[in-house]
Amino acid sequence: MDKEKTRQLEEILGARVRLVTVSPQAWAERGGRDSPAPGDMAEFDCGCWLLVERSGTGLQVLEIGKRLSPVESRLLCWAFLQRSDGASPATESEALAIRLGEWIEARLEKDELHAPLPGEWAARLNKGVVPMLLSYEHVGADAGQILNVARSFLSDLSDEAIIVPLRPAEWLILAPDRLLMEMESFDQEEGDPDGVRDELASLAEGLQQAITGEWGGDCHVAVAEPVQPREELASAAALLRETMELGRRFHPERRVHLPWRIHLEWLIGHLPEPALHRIAGRMHGAMEPFADPETEAMLELFFSLDCNVSATARRMYVHRNTLLYRLEKFKLESGLDVRGFNDAVRARILLLLYKMTKRK
Amino acid sequence: MAGVRLENVTKRFPGSEKPAVDNFNLEIKDKEFLVLVGPSGCGKSTTLRMIAGLEEISEGKLYIGDRLVNDVAPKDRDIAMVFQSYALYPHMNVYQNMAFGLKLRKVRKDEIDRRVREAARMLEIEHLLDRKPKALSGGQRQRVALGRAIVREPQVFLMDEPLSNLDAKLRTQMRANISKLMKRLETTCIYVTHDQIEAMTMGDRIVVMKDGVIQQAADPDTLYHHPINLFVAGFIGSPAMNFIPGMFEEEGGKLRFKAEGINVVMPEGKAQIIRNKGYVGREIILGVRPEDIHEEPVFLEASPETVIYAGVEVAENLGHEMFLYLAGLGKENVIARVDGRAGIQEGQNVKLAIDMNKVHVFDKDTELNIFEND
User: For the whole model, what pTM was predicted?
Assistant: First the structure.
């Protein structure tokens, strides 16, 4: 219960109100019934307890500093149960976030990506934000606890980070853009987007590992450059969602997805289905060498390291000559010498086409 | 503190016919420093990730201490991880990075402070606590990643190639630091590496893996001197063991090993085993470590029946020792490790002798070491 609601309740009841945790024994000693359920009351001389929640550490109760009249008691219990039955969010912020999520989904559905934020959010989101998309799937995982990790991760910055639920197991996180200053990105020369992007990638990696390290499961994070939410929120959400979808389709081994690293993937991912099949049909023979998982992995790594033979060999833990031999073998099978620019581009496109068609 | 036990643990990935880890059985003792080593794709990282709770176990049981943890979340397994692709949280300083996991667990502030400062002291990074990751060197970041694990005071440390991103010199230094640290902490540690030198220098016990299966689990000395099969023999040791295909023949009451350019006598003890197991007249693979091929006159005089003659194709002089790449002994080069002062040059023909008491014999079909298997 937030402070405002507590204050309001104190005014109405004319007594002190606070949330405390008590033991089941203490509950019983104060006249509470056995095996209490949320909404039950324990009344005593100078006050009463309303059971809010049972937890591993005890019973969380609302402690009211006076004995209530029967009508007050029943009204309070009724109000509490309405809140529980409706599964309403505990705080106003959470309710706001849910409504914002619904607004964003509606804009995405109608392709209104530059619609301005309505008034109730515009005041709150009047500064730049770093948008991140979090997707987490794990049987038995508690979404609340996953988000607690995310909140703790960002809490050192400020309490201004907003977590907006979108689809099931998907959340849009809006962190204040001044976090880039916290990460000393502004030490970079002005106009150095690479520095900012590297920092954002580190942030996303950190969040992904913080969640996975606690809960395991399949956690994906996409992050975009800062936006002004008033007019760019829906488009940011669309960009992040597309980035994650393309990232998961073309690079299933990755868990962090960055929009500035998926240009060709975007191009191929948007090919109309008939065109895709036509191209794939024409190139079928050329795509056969990619069917070998080791070749696919080798090429992915080679391209990600800017076609640097030495760096690739190091990462593969093989001798440089071994890698050259394998690249030569690929050249004989495919006709493509990926150490040359044009053939490397063609091979990269073929690899992406292969991934698209393999998964259809 | 606790040991770890894996019982018939198997991991199958969807769409893959072969399991990534197949019927893995291992007991890791409390406080043991155990190394999982093998080539890329052998299943060592997958095994570690299953222990961490980052991969589901397809079959089998995993125990940490006495607790079955198959379905326990990573955060509740009382383990701490240091992975190759560790990400320090860029918006937090070193202190906050190390404190983060404890903060999530609602550890008291004074306790967090105590643990962070103690770990920082151990890792000699106290002076870096206010810095952000961006301002740290690679070695310093690695120590912060270690610090993040140490403050958790876990039952088990899990490390997956933590030194891979460091340059060779720093890697050697950090290797020693980690070994020292783990001994001091007296905590079970499971360490994954592809580098057999790292494995041999760090592990109390080493598990060599291939294709998801344990090849051999033993202390470094046993692995080196008593490899159970061809793969382990070839994987452990640098330069790698020489493998020479050939055959045993009886001649004048002695058992001889014959191959291209080689005709040497087996010592009687080993000869008897070869005879008893029926390997006379069968094709086998002889394994000889480079350091068991000698050029010293004393050895040549003492062992005339194990002499070989070869041409030196390449001579790599490292100062204190020299590697000779020999031609004329089978299809592949045989490598000999000799004293750096031997003065042998490329193109020279040399007379060497094999210490046949140290050789290994592998069955050509099963690849098992006939001296180490019944």
Answer: 0.78
